[in-house]
């Protein structure tokens, strides 16, 4: 076998054009989904303090943001609702006139070709901040499934192109698939939050969505960050129940999970580059400690290398602009 000096790996690194020819992974605007927070009222543009550049937007101003999404060629958005009122059962989540349902109708009317994905969960809508109906001091799994299925159905009726259950209840993909199929929405795909960890990286999101639990935490239904094999079991179950796309959340600390799931199942896989990951980069960049553009592009390319087909990221608008400059 030839050895140094016959083999010189640096020959393929000496100039940019050669590096482009042998590059193994490519980040593209086609990989991106942009998460948005929609709230009630008109003329509302409220920046999330811990997420510079991310806003709670009323529907009218959301449309202005969507113009940028369309112009930059980003395929779609993931919609989260920030309601005015909450209750024990999270009724705003499955209200036909809820904030997400209103937003979906308006966005699809103005931008019919945009892929509109909706987050299906109750935590933004419950007064207690948990992802389902409470029994004692934890979420009552099975009665919650019907409410999640009703929520997904209401989103489909409003015009959503895809639904994304993020609750981590056992059996929720099957319940949603059965409800959609029975009501004539068999063609609506499900993007399941299959490996969603009980992570400290969600803090800024909970500020944006007003979804911090009012008691306890979510460790009884979200996954233990120490576990890897469990992620494979969760993903296998979601695929069996009818998931069309599976997801790992968060992304940065779980690249090994992304790789393992991709290798095990070969399914379309989304990685959620979550709020805490975004906030850390923004904070360090504002202090001049890092090169934000290089850090973000390196991180997202790492997610592609790990096996992600889709990247959900709050950096999407910036990344789309940067990729045009490459």
Automatic annotation (TrEMBL):
What name appears for this protein in its UniProt entry? Delta-aminolevulinic acid dehydratase
Q: What is its EC number?
A: 4.2.1.24
Q: Name one GO cellular component term.
A: cytosol
Record: active site: 196, 249
Keyword annotations: Heme biosynthesis, Lyase, Magnesium, Metal-binding, Porphyrin biosynthesis, Zinc
| Source species, domain of life | Bacteria
List all membrane-crossing ranges. Answer: none
Residues the entry annotates as binding 5-aminolevulinate 1 = 206, 218
Q: Which SMART domains does this chain map to?
A: ALAD (SM01004)
Pathway, per record:
Porphyrin-containing compound metabolism; protoporphyrin-IX biosynthesis; coproporphyrinogen-III from 5-aminolevulinate: step 1/4
Single GO molecular function: porphobilinogen synthase activity
> What chemistry does it catalyse, as a reaction equation?
2 5-aminolevulinate = porphobilinogen + 2 H2O + H(+)
Q: Which residues bind Mg(2+)?
A: 234
What GO biological process terms does the UniProt entry carry, in alphabetical order?
protoporphyrinogen IX biosynthetic process
Top EC class of this enzyme: lyase
Record-stated family: Belongs to the ALAD family.
